[in-house]
Amino acid sequence: xxxxxxxxxxxxxxxxxxxxxxxxxxxxxxLNFAHGDIIMVGxxxxxxxxxxxxxxxxxxxxxxxxxxxxxxxxxxxxYKPLRGASPxxxxxxxxxxxYFLQSVAQLIFGAQTHPISLVHFPPVVIGGVxxxxxxxxxxxxxxxxMTLLTLFIKFTKLGRAMxxxxxxxxxxxxxGINVNMIIMVTFAIGSxxxxxxSTFYVMQIPNTSPTLGxxxxxxxxxxxxxxxxxxxxxxxxxGVLMGVVExxxxxxxxxxxxxxxxxxxxxxxILLVKPTGLLGKKRREKV
Amino acid sequence: MALLEVRDLEVxxxxxxxxxxxSFDVNEGEIVTLIxxxxxxxxTTMHSIMGLIPVxxxxxxxxxxxxxxxxxxxxxxxxxxQVPEGRHIFQELTVYDxxxxxxxxxxxxxxxxxxxxxxxxxxxxxxxxxxxxAGTLSGGEQQMLAMGRAMMSHPKLLMLDEPSxxxxxxxxxxxxEIIKEFNKSGTTIxxxxxxxxxxxxxxxxxxxxxxxxxxxxGTGAELAASDEVKKAYLGG
Lengths: 287, 236
Ligand SMILES: Nc1ncnc2c1ncn2[C@@H]1O[C@H](COP(=O)(O)OP(=O)(O)OP(=O)(O)O)[C@@H](O)[C@H]1O
Ligand SMILES: [Mg+2]
Prior knowledge:
The complex is a heterodimer of chains A (287) and B (236). Chain A is mainly alpha-helical. Chain A has eleven helices and four strands. In chain A, 72% of the residues lie in helices and 3% in strands. Chain B has ten helices and ten strands. In chain B, the strands form two sheets. A six-stranded mixed sheet of chain B has the order 6-7-8-3-9-10, with helices on both faces. Chain B has a four-stranded antiparallel sheet with strand order 2-1-4-5, with helices on one face. Chains A and B meet through helix 6 and helix 7 of A and helix 2 and helix 3 of B. The structure holds adenosine-5'-triphosphate (ATP) and magnesium ion. Residues 42-43, 85, 161 of chain B line the site of magnesium ion.
């Protein structure tokens, strides 16, 4: 039971990150390989605020603000000039941005691991089951954020414009939609979600290093593909699935050492059965 | 001064020149048509006017303002939009959401709702299907949706790229009736059609495009009577 809750909680972290990948892919039609590193930047924002004796809430706000601004800045400086360039050029740029962020972090903070004590909740025991409070918090807040995002996309003008741009960029322009602005908003939202993921991540694994973002980044990306890249509910489902599989596998001694391999095999199996991912749609060819 | 003036327009796809210097006018209140064979450059002309593809040489002037370098979404705000070839409705959204997006440049929700009612009264079929996913509409209904959606931004100049493509004859007649109605209610029309006969019938002015060049122009009636046009586009 507690393994399952831990899995859901880790899953909601993966889902928050996966949403960033999937939204940027759907709307800007690119793989933002540097997305995982935004999580790393968020963790250093938290670390720095705490080292300056800032309140934990302030640390979280700092992470959200810095990550959002950074996401927008990266888009403007690195990706926007490549609009219309070949996907390969954009992908290589994104990988470059990823290394750049890691190197800057290493330059400022060093390569070593820094402990972060954001908050510490003693675990609670309910009906004989020990449950981690930070797991519950990530789970509940993560679910809340995802609900708000879904409502935002479904029921606001900006959300509708995001769907329009993801479906048909030229037609969206003909509606008077400023596509560059929508792409910028998408990066802002994706990066803010990554900041929350970062917060929950350091609540559970209380330390950071310049490569912190790589593993959750790549797992969340896998989750986004499992769910169907471009699909928002898909990213949520894929993320939760990854988290649950990971925690359950880790709790079974014979499987534990093979957990990561198992997670990536999940990708292969699902793509074999459904090449577009669980909730992915086959793109209709344009007439 | 014409509402839209196109001068010496040249457009390239990579090294291939698709438009080789074309010039024409669209006067306010008129229906102007561009006809020409497949690949002549009709869609390219419309896309370059709308800013969807870059203009290499020449100028596009709308209401006296040079708009070559103006981004598409701002051109829509200036009062010009396009019903693209192949309709390009938002397939995964409902009919209603498509129309809401058509009214994107309007901020007053009351006005948007009134405009949607207006579209519904022109196209009762769309009203019946307001919550249907647009991708599941029939071809004719999709065309109506694309036209209704474009009307939502109250264009002064509406460009239609092959609106009758793939439709049954009775629907084609209906679409042409609607175009005439739009025009009567004050919308200037630039129309691209495969169905040259019908297009020339309703057009005030017409231009024939061949290999990226305008080779003939005149009133709709003049071109319909011309031997060259009859031979090449009206099936003898
Ligand atoms: N994206 C593109 N890349 C390269 N060449 C293109 C592209 N789009 C159009 N062309 C070429 O430009 C020329 C003009 O094409 P355009 O689509 O404007 O023709 P059209 O008159 O609209 O034809 P149709 O009646 O078939 O719609 C054609 O030779 C076409 O092959
Ligand atoms: Mg065409």
